[in-house]
Amino acid sequence: MANQSNPSMVRPPPLIDNETFKREAVITWCAFYVQIAFLAVFGNGLVVASFIRYSRLRTITNYFVASLAVADILVGLVSIPIWISMLLYSTGGKTLGNIYYILDIFAGTCSILHLVTISLERFFAVVYPIRRRNTSPKVYYIFLVAVWIIPAAASLSALELREINRKANMMFLFMGFFVIPLLVILFTYAKIWLTARNRIQPARDSSRSIKRDMRIAVTIALVIGFFVIAWLPFFTVQLLIVFCESCKPRIYNTDLLLFVKYMHYSNSAINPIVYAVKIPEFRRAFKQLVCCCDSGTPSVTEIVSGTDMRVASHTSHERALSH
């Protein structure tokens, strides 16, 4: 009896033992995955630490930036280590596979919904500035909660739907959390560019404000662009696997499968680099944290520049209503 039960106790083999995967390629890619995991945790840790430590960074937009950084830290701490474990140690059977699937879907949908929310916030800041200044902070808090709850519900639903209909599940994820959100983002940024172009002439102060908003918009547009580059190969391969039976022999090769995983994981590491390059406040904060320097009192330039999009005070509300 004991001998008969032993096979069921045997650990499921790792993916590296699968004939589809080449051992040397798997080991090489795992080294790259470790680098991405470190960069994701370290870089996004700097974003969160900067947001917490420096009050000048606690703006409406940056609340969502910091929230997105937390999601990317989870990718580096949980998703990538599980994937490496499945490659080298054991696939862990159905339970670990389901946990990994849920976390993978959660990471992608959480990122795209954060980007959609940021683009909508930028849209109202530029196109409807007075309405945006008069919006209660509670509205933003609701959105902050929603961008976590919706991905959690979507990832659990996707797990159930995958068991029933793989094609329907793939279309649900692709359309609901990639195509439609990107269309919303493209619409909002088109309106932002048009509005900024029309307003940049009149008054000097207004022009400076619009240029500041545009700088933030360009930064977020870069983040969105990298998201598309990182996730499009993954969705393309997944769609081909599900809908094109004849394509499977060409798709199931080590380098392609490991490459698309690397690409979508790399998205979790790239955002802090964009912030450091494009946003002076984050760049200074990163330097101060890494060098353990005390910034002292922020300058006037720091207070009014790039990311200064705080929730309006009562005085600001009154000024806005008087226009």
TrEMBL record:
GO molecular function terms listed in the Swiss-Prot or TrEMBL record: G protein-coupled serotonin receptor activity; neurotransmitter receptor activity
GO biological-process terms attached to the record: chemical synaptic transmission; G protein-coupled receptor signaling pathway, coupled to cyclic nucleotide second messenger
PROSITE patterns membership: G_PROTEIN_RECEP_F1_1 (PS00237), G_PROTEIN_RECEP_F1_2 (PS50262)
Gene3D superfamilies for the chain: Rhodopsin 7-helix transmembrane proteins (1.20.1070.10)
Membrane-traversing stretches: 26-51, 63-84, 99-118, 139-159, 171-194, 215-243
InterPro entries according to UniProt: GPCR_Rhodpsn, GPCR_Rhodpsn_7TM
Keywords assigned: Cell membrane, G-protein coupled receptor, Membrane, Receptor, Transducer, Transmembrane, Transmembrane helix
SUPFAM superfamilies xref list: Family A G protein-coupled receptor-like
Mode of membrane association: Multi-pass membrane protein
Keyword Cell membrane set for record: yes
Domain G-protein coupled receptors family 1 profile as annotated: residue spans: 43-275
Subcellular location(s) of the protein: Cell membrane
Entries under Pfam families matching the protein: 7tm_1
Domain of life: Eukaryota
Gene Ontology, cellular component aspect: dendrite; plasma membrane; synapse
Keyword Chloroplast listed: no
Family: Belongs to the G-protein coupled receptor 1 family.
PANTHER family, per the entry: 5-HYDROXYTRYPTAMINE RECEPTOR, 5-HYDROXYTRYPTAMINE RECEPTOR 1
Record protein name field: G-protein coupled receptors family 1 profile domain-containing protein
Species this protein is from: Pocillopora damicornis
